Amino acid sequence: MKAVGIIPARYHSTRLEGKPLMDIHGKPMIQWVYENVMKADVLDEVFVATDDQRIVEVVERFGGRAMMTSRDHTTGTDRIAEVAKNLDVQVVINIQGDEPFITPTMINEVATPLLGDQDIPMCTLMHEITEEDFHNPNVVKVVADSSGFALYFSRSLIPYPRNKEGHQAFEHIGIYGYQKTFLLKLSTLPPTPLEKTEALEQLRVLENGYKIKVISTAAKDYIPLSIDTKEDLERARAIIRSLRA
């Protein structure tokens, strides 16, 4: 296989336990994610990687494929690496299991550079944000160099608008693509100082001297909502209601 999508889905979320199974207009959240990912034409297969049999049963009930993984993983990266190591595949796409509005366009965007150039170890996405999100620490910002590779990720505003003319800020979208060989290597690297300070796992890549390609997504229908709280869940339900109205 050339590319697979893997959706890590942990049951025991700190702020919203059991969130992959939370109902959004008649379907569990994990089904919304899975069905959107399945529409990406670049993927040969899609799996849910989970630590809970309840999630496996729900995924299989709606016709998806799920794999049990260790309960000891501390990150989604470790969880998808456990699944990927047994797959004969070049590229692995890590899709967050709490983003029900992920689009197939974005899956294709993050996979294409990796399939075209095996020297690119990792790829991710970004989109421009407005001033209202500049100082929100939950909106992770990214700056890239002239070749489109990440210079830094931060919860702070980067770049700082000392000169406001032409200033742009971009939010990092938490979908990652990896060459399988790099993913397996990354899963063996210990957490790094900046990673621990910012609580951003992708900084481990930069601190170890590896590059991350960053693509500005062209997906116009993307709704940037990660479900971490009951309030997020209600917002997602409201969005679906408005789209169906």
TrEMBL record:
Name the protein family: Belongs to the KdsB family.
| InterPro entries noted in UniProt | Cytidylyl_trans, KdsB, Nucleotide-diphossugar_trans
Function statement: Activates KDO (a required 8-carbon sugar) for incorporation into bacterial lipopolysaccharide in Gram-negative bacteria.
CDD domains for the chain: CMP-KDO-Synthetase (cd02517)
Record-listed E.C. numbers: 2.7.7.38
Q: Which reaction does it catalyse?
A: 3-deoxy-alpha-D-manno-oct-2-ulosonate + CTP = CMP-3-deoxy-beta-D-manno-octulosonate + diphosphate
Q: Does the keyword NADP apply?
A: no
Annotated transmembrane regions: none
Record-linked Pfam families: CTP_transf_3 (PF02348)
Looking up NCBIfam families in the UniProt record yields: kdsB, PRK05450.1-3, PRK05450.1-5, PRK13368.1
Per the record, what is one GO cellular component? cytosol
Name recorded for this polypeptide = 3-deoxy-manno-octulosonate cytidylyltransferase
Identify the coding gene.
kdsB
Query: What is its pathway?
Result: Nucleotide-sugar biosynthesis; CMP-3-deoxy-D-manno-octulosonate biosynthesis; CMP-3-deoxy-D-manno-octulosonate from 3-deoxy-D-manno-octulosonate and CTP: step 1/1
Q: Which PANTHER family match?
A: 3-DEOXY-MANNO-OCTULOSONATE CYTIDYLYLTRANSFERASE, 3-DEOXY-MANNO-OCTULOSONATE CYTIDYLYLTRANSFERASE, MITOCHONDRIAL
> Where does this protein reside within or beyond the cell?
Cytoplasm; Membrane
GO BP, one annotated term: CMP-keto-3-deoxy-D-manno-octulosonic acid biosynthetic process
Q: Is Cytoplasm found in the keyword set? A: yes
User: Keywords, A to Z?
Assistant: Cytoplasm, Lipopolysaccharide biosynthesis, Nucleotidyltransferase, Transferase
Organism this protein belongs to: Vecturithrix granuli
MF GO annotations: 3-deoxy-manno-octulosonate cytidylyltransferase activity
